[in-house]
Design brief:
mainly alpha
Length: 148
């Protein structure tokens, strides 16, 4: 065995709880930075966009707006749903289908009561907090139990 080789015995001393915490913190900061870059890129804040763009979240938000307006069934009418998507973002975006069951519109209506960008960030943070890297760094297992 060569000098300085990593064995299970010295690996446990190298990866103590403090170092793992720091590594997880760095990974979370990088993931959050990439999220901000994604938001800025899709909203044209980094470079001007040649045509309007959006994410699939606009489909959920537009369905929620239609529900608040008292016409939730229009979420399944492509023309009406596209018009709602363009109202909350801008004309000319690519249509994002709403292929979810009607009960899902109730959740969309809750988010649609918030300004679009705030609702988008809350939705992304909720998905991000349920991701495996976040759970492993926060010490929470998939079942919600604390592992540390």
């Amino acid at each position: 065995m060569s000098v300085g080789a990593i064995s299970p015995a010295n690996l446990s001393t190298l990866l103590d709880r403090r170092r793992i915490g720091w590594c997880c913190g760095i990974l979370l900061a990088l993931q959050f930075g990439l999220f901000l870059l994604f938001v800025a890129g899709t909203h044209g804040w980094i470079v001007p966009l040649t045509r309007p763009t959006t994410t699939d979240f606009v489909s959920f938000y537009a369905a929620g707006v239609l529900a608040i307006d008292g016409t939730p069934a229009l979420a399944y009418d492509h023309a009406a749903h596209l018009a709602a998507e363009e109202r909350v973002t801008e004309p000319g975006i690519e249509y994002q289908f709403f292929n979810y069951p009607p009960v899902f519109i109730l959740l969309c209506a809750v988010l649609a009561r918030l300004p679009y960008l705030v609702a988008f960030v809350l939705s992304a943070v909720r998905r991000w907090s349920r991701s495996a890297p976040f759970r492993s760094c926060s010490g929470t297992s998939a079942s919600g139990r604390t592992r540390f």
